[in-house]
Amino acid sequence: MNHLRLRLVHPRCLPLARPNSSFSTCIPHHNITQKYGEKLKQRAQETGAKDVYELRERVQRELEAEKARQKAEDVTLKSNQSVNNTPRGNSPPASAVKARKDSSPIKPLDTIINLSKLLSSSPPLTPAQLGALWGAYHARKEGVLCAVVPLDIYGQLLDRARQYGQFVVPLPRGGKLAEDGKEAEGGTEMFFIEWAVHHSPTLPNPNVDELGLPIFQPTESPTLKGSNPPIMTLLFTPLQEYKHRQSFAAPHLALTLYTDLAATHGVVLLRGDITPAQSGDGRWLLGQEEAQALVVAMQKFYLPGTGGGVKEREELLKCFHERPEEFKWERLLELSDIGIKL
């Protein structure tokens, strides 16, 4: 099945992650000031700055102001769209569960890894090297999943998520299964999943740093292959909690699929964040294996692949949206193959 191709791994079991490895040791560092000293001094004089450091501060302030302006425009745009898209009348929703009103906030990829250093590496990183860095970064982090998704597989996920934005998947907990499949009576807990398609990241410029200043020109730049597809997020929320609290229900697991490097490296970086317990004692709402089991369960219906049960899973996913009154919970348990306890 296609779901095996995602290679979702436990961060601590990643063989390429070493205790002393770090991102900075994998990417060559270049002294920007030495190489472009004269140009930067000339630019500082033209703008009235005292020196290069003041020039950097000015550029930083300008970038922050521009980001604030864009953020304000985005908030205004979303507010207008929310007003325009407000449903009129009392017509019930087509899907089995109402869409939640909030969305999972996206942590920018460049706040997780240094995209400028990554893109300026020479020769460019291969998808395998990029995956190793992604895994090494998350190797010591608690409550996090990571994976590298091939671009063709991501395309399938994107198409299916746009068509079927919501579904339910079971999580085995051990014990006796509920007869109707609706309640989590020790054996199985149902999770409501919801996709959100966001913006498409702009194509990266490997020739400037975070401040927009020129950096070392690599001998071999990454080859751009079209534009980046949209970023997607996926929330996993216990179904019973979602029924009671709707948009106020807290997801137990949030996946973000970053497409910032899709055009340059042909892969999508997946990061899953498990919600910490409110007790604040270092525990999480899901265990690592439970979170992985939820992702695999999702793939069985959104990446059915080939083999037995493919058409049945596709039909059940379609039934959930188009004929919710015919949806069978028993059939969901059968097609999810959850006979093995965690």
TrEMBL record:
Composition bias, Polar residues: 77-93
Region (Disordered): 67-103
Location, primary (coarse class): mitochondrion
One GO location term (cellular component): mitochondrion
Any one GO BP annotation for this protein: mitochondrial proton-transporting ATP synthase complex assembly
Places the protein is found: Mitochondrion
Transmembrane segments: none
Biased composition, class Basic and acidic residues, residue ranges: 67-76
Pfam families cross-referenced by the UniProt entry: ATP11
Keywords, alphabetical: Mitochondrion, Transit peptide
Matches recorded under InterPro entries: ATP11
PANTHER family listed in its UniProt record: ATP SYNTHASE MITOCHONDRIAL F1 COMPLEX ASSEMBLY FACTOR 1 (PTHR13126:SF0), CHAPERONE ATP11 (PTHR13126)
Family: Belongs to the ATP11 family.
Protein name: Protein ATP11, mitochondrial
Provenance organism: Rhizoctonia solani
Lineage summary: Eukaryota, Fungi, Dikarya, Basidiomycota, Agaricomycotina
